[in-house]
Amino acid sequence: MKIFSGTSNLPLAQKVADSLNTTLGKVEIIRFDDQECRVRIEEEVERENIVFVQSTSNPPDKFLMESYLFADSAKRSGAKEITLVMPYFGYARQDKEHRKGESVSASIVTKCLEVSGFTKLLTFDIHSKYVLSFFNKVQTQHESVLPEMVAQLIKEHKLDMSNLGIFSPDQDGAHRSRYVIQKIGGGQYGLSKKSAIWISCTPCAQSMDSAIWEILRTRTSSSSMIWWPLVALLLKQ
Prior knowledge:
Layout: E1 2-5, H1 10-19, E2 27-31, E3 37-41, E4 49-53, H2 60-76, E5 81-86, H3 105-116, E6 120-124, E7 139-143, H4 146-157, E8 165-168, H5 171-184, E9 188-191, H6 210-236
Parallel strand pairs: 1-4, 4-5, 5-6, 6-7, 8-9
Antiparallel strand pairs: 2-3
């Protein structure tokens, strides 16, 4: 198995490779003056199982295009299996036509990933699992790290479990909030249309004090500590 990284999160890909006692594969990703992207795999991958680690954080369109071109390059180079590890699956909120005339963007993204050459997708805590049903040929695997993330935040910030609330701005997120509460064994969950943030340490989410924002600021660094060992473990299976 060979592991490659896009430009969205090189540190994460490096940690995954390190935990698997391997090095990252060589890939050239360059952008021309007009911001067109060119991707070239710079090592032999024929008959190899390869993994491409790429999230769709801001800007998602840029990182999606890198993913499409990488898969095409790997397919043309004769790779046996091409797995996409996408911790954050962008466009998953656009899984239906909410208003007349809208594109079902999630469907288009899945088609592009499929046509470009990926054979397997590993993603985490996708906004809507319904999106995974759009794939016809790509094998999908969905995992959750939310309970581990919340447990880590509780420990780091010494939060009172009896005073903990996890809230979501929509129904899909409410299911995840309930799942987390069940896993960590305490707290309350519910809907809050006031904000898109998903964790609150205030009673019943009545206010947003400084402690919440401190947790949100540290969420990225905390989550990265959880992502890479789990990704490595799943790739070993």
